[in-house]
Design goal:
It is a single chain. The chain has 426 residues and is an alpha+beta fold. 30% of the residues lie in helices and 27% in strands. The strands form six sheets. The protein has a five-stranded parallel beta sheet with strand order 3-2-1-4-5, with helices on both faces. It has a five-stranded antiparallel beta sheet with strand order 12-15-18-22-19. A four-stranded antiparallel beta sheet has the order 6-9-7-8, with helices on both faces. It is globular. It starts with a strand and ends with a helix.
Length: 426
């Protein structure tokens, strides 16, 4: 079988790498791919991003299964289009992807179906948003309503930070985010205390299979300081997701979401990612939904997956997930993101990357924002690499990942030195 992975980031590199391990696959293509997927002898990059051209290419080349990594093609309706042309594809439809593409839609959905989440209000008028923040006080969270590549959330610890975020997202609309009616919109919600975890499942339209638990680090700097990013590192499993929290997440968040979508006339297929805030008593609230696997959580999760990913996806695209048991490596996987200068708001591109180590069974360098030019790997996006390692404990996986990352260098490189510290601390 020929398989196509859509996307160009670290998540897609990990997906393609894992799929290429299946003996049942003839060839894995990545569209458009990156410098890392281009260098892998088991993968072939396809320089296409237009969804109609991509669908035609899949038809012309006999693609048996397509896996969509990032949110933009999902929000753009790639699943609907491929299915309309009898192409097997795993992901949510455009209607289902609104859970991620519009935070206002997502919050209203949670409110309507009794899914625990933070108190919130939605605004298009900056003056009303400023007044609401003054009324509620800080800390408070300001979110751009729309796809912002993981950079549309400001956790404002002071009122001035909150007001600045409102102006940035509504008046200036620097993120270029628009909601479904056009124009900028923000969701302002209460600040929640606790520990975050990423809870991801596969859905086949009827059945749900939970992936290994994980936890990422959103802040740019050590100690969870600095601005929010798309994620600076992650590890799996996440000790904060106890058996009780896991059961609660399935009971209170995941299953009500799938059933709620069904009630709203939407059949949910694809990955579903619930960002959870877990308080000290184990109670949970939903921070956000994503309609795809998280990045960088995908890299450690797929390092731990022992099942053939092709078999998993074939079950997920034939409503037979209930017959499939996912197998996991007992070891811990931990990934460290290396980002470019200026990330997250003004990432610099074009820096030459040196010292990339060879792939190992227990340590991989997944490429995200890279491109190859004249035999040289260059940075081409904010998050450049995710160095991911497997070991018997969080501490050992952390040591292995940082040892692997040590020889890698490029100008202006940013990297946290404490990924996994919460699990080690506990």
């Amino acid at each position: 079988m020929k398989v196509l992975v859509v996307g160009s980031g670290g998540r897609e590199h990990a997906m393609a790498w894992k799929l290429a391990q299946s003996p049942k696959i003839q060839q894995v293509y990545v569209a458009p791919g990156n410098g890392g997927t281009g260098r892998d002898k088991n993968l072939v990059n396809v320089p296409l991003t237009d969804l109609v051209q991509l669908r035609q290419w899949a038809l012309d080349n006999g693609i048996g299964l397509t896996l969509v990594g990032p949110e933009a093609p999902l929000a753009g309706g790639i699943v609907d289009d491929f299915r309309a042309h009898d192409l097997r594809i795993f992901g949510p439809t455009q209607a289902a992807a609104q859970l991620e593409s519009s935070k206002a839609f997502s919050k209203a959905f949670m409110q309507r179906h009794g899914i625990p989440t933070a108190e919130f209000e939605t605004f298009t008028d900056a003056a009303l948003a400023h007044a609401y923040v003054d009324l509620k006080g800080a800390p408070i969270v300001v979110k751009a309503d729309g796809l912002a590549a993981g950079k549309g959330v400001v956790v404002a610890m002071t009122l001035s930070e909150a007001h600045e975020a409102i102006d940035f997202m509504l008046l200036d609309n620097k993120l270029g985010v628009t909601h479904n009616e056009g124009g900028a919109r923000v969701v302002i919600e209460e600040f929640l205390h606790g520990e975050e975890a990423s809870f991801m499942v596969l859905c086949d339209g009827k059945n749900v299979a939970a992936l290994a638990t994980s936890q990422d680090h959103k802040r740019l700097l050590d100690g969870d300081d600095g601005p929010n990013t798309g994620g600076m590192g992650a590890y799996s499993p996440a000790p904060v997701v106890t058996a009780e929290v896991h059961a609660r997440a399935m009971r209170e968040v995941i299953l009500p979401t799938i059933r709620g979508m069904e009630k709203d006339g939407i059949n949910y297929t694809g990955f579903l990612y619930a960002g959870l805030m877990i308080d000290p008593t184990g109670r949970i609230k939903t921070l956000e939904f994503n309609c795809r696997m998280g990045d960088p959580e995908t890299q450690p999760i797929l390092m731990r997956l022992k099942s053939d990913l092709l078999d998993v996806l074939l079950a997920a695209t034939s409503e037979s997930l209930d017959t499939f048991d996912l197998e996991w490596d007992r070891r811990v996987a931990l990934g460290v993101v290396m980002a470019t200068a200026g990330y997250p708001l003004n990432p610099r591109k074009g820096d030459a990357i040196s010292g990339l180590p060879p792939d190992q069974d227990d340590a991989m360098v997944f490429h995200a924002g890279t491109a190859e030019k004249d035999g040289q790997i260059l940075s081409s996006g904010g998050r450049v690499l995710c160095v991911t390692a497997l070991a018997d404990s969080v501490k050992q996986a952390q040591q292995k990942a940082y040892q692997t990352a040590m020889p890698i260098a490029f100008d202006g490189m940013q990297m946290r030195r404490d990924i996994g510290y919460r699990a080690i601390k506990n």
